[in-house]
Amino acid sequence: MSLKNKEQDGQYSPPSRIHLEHEEESCNDFQQFETNDQCRPHARIHLEPQEKPDTNFKQFVIKKLEKSCQCSSNKARNIIFAFLPVLQWLPKYNLKKNILGDVMSGLIVGILLVPQSIAYSLLAGQEPVYGLYTSFFASFIYFLLGTSRHISVGIFGVLCLMIGEVVDRELYKAGYDTAHVAASLGVVSNESTSLSQPSGKICDKSCYAIIVGSTVTFMAGVYQVAMGFFQVGFVSVYLSDALLSGFVTGASFTVLTSQAKYLLGLSLPRSSGVGSLITTWIHIFRNIHKTNICDLITSLLCLLVLLPTKELNERLKSKLKAPIPTELFVVVAATLVSHFGKLNEKYNTSIAGHIPTGFLPPKAPDWNLIPNVAVDAIAISIIGFAITVSLSEMFAKKHGYTVKANQEMYAIGFCNIIPSFFHCFATSAALAKTLVKESTGCQSQLSGVVTALVLLLVLLVIAPLFYSLQKSVLGVITIVNLRGALRKFKDLPEMWRISRMDTVIWFVTMLSSALISTEIGLLVGVCFSLFCVILRTQKPETSLLGVVEESEIFESMSAYKNLQAKSGIKIFRFVAPLYYINKEYFKSSLYKKTLNPVLVKAAQKKAVKKKIKKETATLSGIRDEVSVQLSHDPLEFHTIVVDCSAIQFLDTAGIHTLKEVRRDYEAIGIQVLLAQCNPSVRDSLARGEYCKKEEENLLFYSVYEAMTFAEDSQNRKDIYVPNGLSFSSD
């Protein structure tokens, strides 16, 4: 049954509307009507503002310092428990309910991390053992300091790439021969390179590479802890999802390019700086004839095994209790074939080489290198923090708990600072391993301890067994793990449908990260995103509004049908803050949709001058003729209502613009009313002296109230004039 039929049959009654009725009282003259509140035929809303406390800044600072400097046992306990979340959740740990899922997920992630840690070490320009160190320390430290139950913190490909670029640059500055990159990473070779340090000790290329890597990691951790201390987690809001996705995809192309030489068995210098992706491919094609056939065949076989099984894991993840650790099987099989087939001796394949057991003595970062790497560490720290916080918040929301962004900064910061003394490089959360961790039953941070124990077992016992592992296998593992980032191209049609601006940001960030460099690409992405925000407010949407029949709702007449425009009133909406960037666009849009008061005023003056030239009458006669002439061509509206509901703030230029618009329109007899101003805009208007205290009736709390006021004031003008005569403007 239709709504109309229901209404006729009595089954439906529309909601009652509230109407305010006013007594009509006569007023003797127009001036009395304007000043007497009882004569107004409509109700005005009056809100009394809250009284703001008069606080002295000096006293406020002293009070805050006194509160911060107070020391008590409860405060010390709260600080310790806040800094070490493990002390809060571990005593409440439900052993029977959670232990099985945590152990299972920790074991599986640990098994997956072994080959990935070794493979990503190449990406960071380090020996394989340092990747194992990094994953071990990060897993254990995040268990103590982290607030997310599900994310997996460890090696992340993009950060490894950024570390590797810094390492290569500093190796070149230090005078190492970068043409023999493979030799520095443990490849069996007769060549060796070393540098005599000021202390008299000999430090070869691999030694200096980890010194550089740990130093930049230390600085990145310091930045992250500083951001947590000063509570500047808002920095991550400038890295939108589209920007991060484009950056990771662009960096993935650079990662793929850097690993291509290992798949072909080529020994090439690692290109860095602007255009490194193109330079690397030029070097590869120039040396393609030197391809090691054994490494190429091994790479193809590993790809044929890993790609289908990865897809199988993806498709059957709902049915499988745990993903198949294909990477580990491939690493074990490839190591056995290389060892018993003596591929290095027969075909000169590049292998991982000796991986020592145990831990090296701790060593402080090189303080002399800090000026060289301090700027590089900024981008690394922001990317690491942004990815960690975004993943932790995403999984916390999914599973119904909360994480603390500042504590996450502390956690990831100390996951970089402390390991930097133990020959490690930068870490962050990684999406692929986090998804595996969640899907295998992870319940708490305790799974990170299980992962650390698996890596510890490898470091103490199993690591030397990977001596014969070919680097081409590690390169394949790295490339296969880029599938997720490269698949983002499939999401572009949907992203384009939802937001074309985000798609453009994605493409700009991706292309700049891939074709220029990762650091510059990130900077370009951030700057372009901010430019897009400014662009959106520079030329925002503007429209004239109409009222929905029998309601107090106003909407855009260009967007909806069957809206009624009130005679003599133009309602204008501006959907953006009004500030110096878009003040001219505000004026031009308003003039275009209504009329240009400057041109109207000029035309009126021109008409007056023309009349003076034609007529040689007295001054009073001229006035009478001009008034008659102008009355023959009246303006089609008498009031403009500016809907300020979408204007978030005003700056000085915005206030001056509103003043100018009001003055210009009033000069031709059109009043300008502002409606639905938020408290911030009202405060700005008051401080900018937009209107005098007795003119506060020009500001309204709703568009409907402003429209009613305009109609009533016009009716009063039609009926009453100072000399007691009445006339109509029509």
Q: Helices, strands, pairings?
A:
Blueprint: H1 3-9, H2 30-35, H3 57-69, H4 73-83, H5 86-89, H6 95-123, H7 128-145, E1 153-154, H8 157-174, H9 181-184, E2 194-196, E3 202-204, H10 205-229, H11 241-264, H12 276-286, H13 293-315, H14 326-341, H15 343-347, H16 370-399, H17 405-417, E4 428-429, H18 431-439, H19 446-462, H20 471-480, H21 483-486, H22 492-498, H23 500-515, H24 518-538, E5 542-547, E6 554-556, E7 569-574, H25 583-593, H26 597-614, H27 619-631, E8 639-643, H28 652-666, E9 671-675, H29 679-687, E10 699-700, H30 703-719
Q: Any idea what the radius of gyration is?
A: 36 Å
Structural class: mainly alpha
Helix content percent band: 55-70%
The helix count comes to 30
In spatial order, strands of the major sheet run: 6-5-7-8-9-10
Taking the sheet with the most strands, its summary is: 6 strands, mixed
DSSP summary, beta strand count:
10
Query: What's the average pLDDT?
Result: 79
Beta-strand level of the residues, as a percent range?
5-15%
> Which regions have little confidence, pLDDT < 50, spanning 5+ residues?
1-40, 179-201, 625-632, 720-730
**What shape does the CA trace take?**
elongated
Q: What gap, in angstroms, lies between the N and C termini? A: 46 Å
